[in-house]
Design brief:
260 residues, alpha+beta, 35% strand, binds guanosine-5'-monophosphate
């Protein structure tokens, strides 16, 4: 019998109480949603892949000194994480014009921004995390006025987001993938009277746009959003290129398995 208690169920993940105070278990589901949950599907294997891809990236980020909530992987779908107070912001970093940026500012607007155009420098945007409002785009002053984060916390978040972007751009470029954009979430971890900003949530093809450098194929959740099909194959390809997969047998008949 499991003693853990379900604390929160989101669209793609469930959070349970952890074995020690200050810890939680993050469970990756196979569910996919888009367009403020108007579109929904269960895609077998997605949760396992996101768990392993996110684990891989969080470990690499930890190795370069980025504070993250990740403690360890527990099984194919679950990670042990530090409990944090989630800051109600979606922090999006963009290197290339795509998605809502193109909808907002692209053709036929005066800027004429086209999908696939490299931006002059990485763009950091903030969205207020509220499903009922459809996660609206906000400015830094909204964050200050409504007290969602202090100025030092916001400075820390921006510095971390840009550092993560630099690191991940290189990581993916090295395996033939263009990191177009991605979404991060941060939390506050309290230790006695002081708090520290930590990267939380996940980094996976669910919240990144990843395009093959050569053929521009989409290897991310846009396969679901845009009804392109082949989502699991695309996520598997990302995992394979990052070295998370290996072939089980030399004959290759048993297909790829996750490297422990
Ligand atoms: P856009 O604003 O263009 O729709 O998304 C920008 C980037 O952030 C994309 O990589 C997208 O996957 C990610 N993103 C933005 N909002 C969400 C969200 O609510 N859930 C997920 N999984 N990713 C998001």
């Amino acid at each position: 019998m499991s003693k853990r208690r379900r604390l929160y169920e989101g669209k793609a993940k469930i959070l349970y109480t952890g074995p020690e105070p200050g810890t939680l278990i993050q469970h990756f589901k196979d569910d996919a949603t888009a367009f403020n949950a108007e579109k929904h599907a269960t895609i077998e294997g997605k949760g396992v892949l996101n768990n392993r891809i996110s684990e891989y990236i969080f470990i690499r980020l930890g190795e370069i000194g980025v504070a993250t909530h990740f403690i360890k992987t527990l099984n194919m779908r679950e990670q042990l994480i530090h409990e944090v107070d989630i800051i109600p912001l979606e922090v999006v970093v963009r290197n290339v014009a795509a998605g809502s940026l193109v909808k907002r500012l692209g053709h036929p607007g005066r800027l004429g921004l086209k999908e696939g155009e490299t931006l002059p420098r990485p763009l950091v945007e903030f969205y207020y995390k509220d499903d009922a409002l459809g996660d609206p785009l906000i400015g830094e002053d909204h964050i200050a006025v409504f007290g969602w984060a202090s100025q030092p916390e916001l400075d820390d978040i921006i510095a971390n987001a840009l550092r993560i972007n630099d690191f991940m751009t290189g990581l993916f470029y090295g395996v033939g993938i263009r990191l177009v954009d991605f979404k991060l979430e941060f939390g506050r971890r309290w230790e006695d009277e002081t708090s520290r900003i930590m990267l939380a949530d996940e980094i996976s093809p669910d919240n990144c746009r990843l395009w093959d450098v050569e053929n521009h194929e989409k290897l991310d959740k846009d396969r679901f959003r845009q009804d392109l099909g082949g989502l699991v194959d695309a996520y598997q390809e990302v995992a394979r290129r990052l070295g998370i997969f290996t072939d089980a047998k030399a004959d290759g008949k048993s297909g790829p398995v996750l490297v422990k």
